[in-house]
Amino acid sequence: MKLTAILAISIALALTQARALDARQADAVDATETSNTSRYDAFHQPNDFERFPAPASTGGKAWQEAFSKAKDMVAQMTLEEKSGILLSHDGRCVGNTHGVDRLGIPDLCLMDGPTGVRPGSGISSFPAGQAAAATWDRDLIYQRSKAMGQEFFDKGVHIALAPVSAGPLGRSPLGGRNWEGSYPDAYANGVYSYESVRGMQDSHVAATIKHFIGYEQETSRNPYTVSSDGGQEPISSNVDDKTMHEVYLAPFAQAIRGGSAHVMCSYNKINGTNACGNAQALNGLLKGEINHQGAVISDWGGIHSSLDVLATEMSAPGTGFAGLFGDYYSDMPQLVNNGTVSEDRIDDACIRILTPYYWLGQDEEHVPPEVVFNANNYYEAEDTYKNVRKPDTAQLIHQIALESAVLLKNTGGLPLNNPERLAVVGALGDTANSECGATGTGCDYNTSLLTMGGGSGWSDAPYIVTPLDALKTRARDANFELSHALTYDEEVINDIAGRADSTLVWLNDWAEESADREDLTIGEEQSMMLEAAVHASSNVIIVMNSPVVDIEQYAEHPNVTAIVQAHYTGEAADAVVSALFGDENFSGKLPYTWGKRLEDWPNNTIVTTDDNNPQAYFDEGVFVDYKWFDKHEIEPRYEFGFGLSYTTFECSDIKIADNYKKDDMAIQDTAEPFEGFDGSNSLYDVIKTVTAIVTNTGDRKGSEVAQLYVTLPGEDMPVRELRGFEKIRDLDAGESREVSFDVTLKDLSTWDVQRQMWVVPQGDFVFHVGNSSRNLPLNATSSF
Ligand code: NOJ
């Protein structure tokens, strides 16, 4: 970006900030709602379009040529043509813009979602985002998204409605869509968002990071009529300014640095105003502070007025689904003609939608083929069928699924060494089928193998080899006896578990869009199966395809000799089997904290109420997930970043070096204000490098995730915060390797609410290296 542009943005930001500060002092805030309301002051004028007008796009440093092309095209369009680009309509995709034939611009195809191209046929079903996060491997995260992007492209999609960034981040373990996302930690989530965006767009498909912002619960996300006295408004996520910046905005900033074409605004309100009409969030934070140059696309039905065009560029599904969600923006020509909306705003909205289209070369070099599915009917006629799977993709998916499996406990149950008799009990039935994730039809969640959760993030998985299939093949080849009970029958379980060397108990738990989980319990039938197995056998191995569930009564049970969290694997549910038998090692780590009981997490993080104007106060502030457990000294069952292996590792020799390196990772630059900005430096410049040595001290090959945490100086700070991770692959027994973590200026900064900028706090910084958030044997102190 040119210096003048940087200065212009900085000045604009400074003015905006000064105005925001004045306004904060001037506005009296209603403090009656909770005793805590005042903490939300600094972020409380979300719908003031005078203070937060939509910034005109510039294309940013990466999209200059594409920006000029888009601008030229838009200059040739009529108002009706421009309005069509902003408005989605019915078509073969879940969202479809109106093209402009005479200028060679096609209808753009928008399609879900984060585990693959949603329509049913000829696609891969990828491990869920949370599973990919559990690999803690940047490259696998990137490759997953790239391979998925290729399938989107080959199916004719211009704009993928993926990946999920920090919405949901996962502040509650009950969140219905946590599995679609990644980590409830801003740093790790930022890495995931950045790599996923890059992967997708390296396949020439536009990414849409979602859902912006504060989208942490499904309950009451949409307006409904819940009582006789009127309709219920969407839940309002009330987030203070510091938390907004440090926890929720930071991952989106990384997605923008990765060059994300578009952003989807969320269903919830943010501090009282609908996210998709929220001037402060979309025009201030997103397009101003983190400098988003593409479009904001509404979530389906997230728009509640045509005037949301002042912040949100595309209305989806618009007239699609028979206008079910309100055909907002259909009246755009009239609103411009009567002076309600300026034509400049419409021009800029079109430019923001079209710039990434040109940047990705979708007009010339990388034109997606004709759309070969119908989102309204997944299994429609053969002419829509086209298998776009690539030979290497199945292998990649298998690898991700394998590395997403986290070994949580092992007192000798694993690996399964040449069993003579193996019993299998639980939710991994032949009933496993792809429709489980679709609409809730076609399977019994209690006993079926689950390969993912439900909702728009579902993808079809006709290629599932169930773990039971894989075990049968092994039993045949290695000639051991395999018996199974896939539903509760005490007698059968007693019998088969009683005589087996080992008993595998498979558990699942369902999570889906539109509904949060009610509690952490597993289904009743599974509970009974587990109980019966533990009663009958002294060598029970629990394997789960689930979010966090309550297995507390078994965690230390002597008859439970191993526990594995295998996550939602997509089509590769069998991948974990090779690790159970020890052909492969475990290397996954928990991408969230596994608490002992629901009460260990902050209270009331899923708000359920009949109130017509429901409010969620993010009172835990920045203390989300492990930061909450650490602050309140709550012992989790398994901590964030934890996972065992068949070998052991040690870290030694921590060193900190002052090591200035200019940021070379930003595809687009953000415009975040920070102390010490000199016109040419970046908040993402590297200022220190921390190194350590990782040694495999066991007797077999394995991979380890080295983790860097930092304790920042100051009061009421998190005990420690993740600031780096690196998967050290395939260390032989006895082998040592150096790991190195680059620490940026932002990594050592906090958001100063008064000064409205990132500031490095005064004092000593303590760096910790180890292999989980609570096993950090190496410590070293450094000042800034
Ligand atoms: C609603 C979901 O929240 C969003 O993630 C999805 O992309 C749209 N529906 C379109 O299916």
What does this structure look like?
It is a single chain. This protein is an alpha/beta fold and 784 residues long. It has three domains: 57-359, Glycoside hydrolase, family 3, N-terminal domain (TIM Barrel), CATH 3.20.20; 391-592, 3-Layer(aba) Sandwich (Rossmann fold); 647-783, Immunoglobulin-like (Sandwich). 26% of the residues lie in helices and 18% in strands. The strands form eight sheets. Strands 12-17-16-15-13-14 form a six-stranded mixed beta sheet, sandwiched between helices. Strands 10-9-7-18 form a four-stranded mixed beta sheet, with no helix packed on it. Strands 22-21-26-27 form a four-stranded antiparallel beta sheet, with no helix packed on it. A hairpin with a 2-residue loop joins strand 9 and strand 10 (273-274). Helix 5 packs antiparallel against helix 11 (391-404). The two termini are 27 Å apart. 59% of the residues are buried. 1-deoxynojirimycin binds at residues 94, 112-113, 161, 210, 299-300, 456. It catalyses: Hydrolysis of terminal, non-reducing beta-D-glucosyl residues with release of beta-D-glucose. GO terms for molecular function: beta-glucosidase activity.
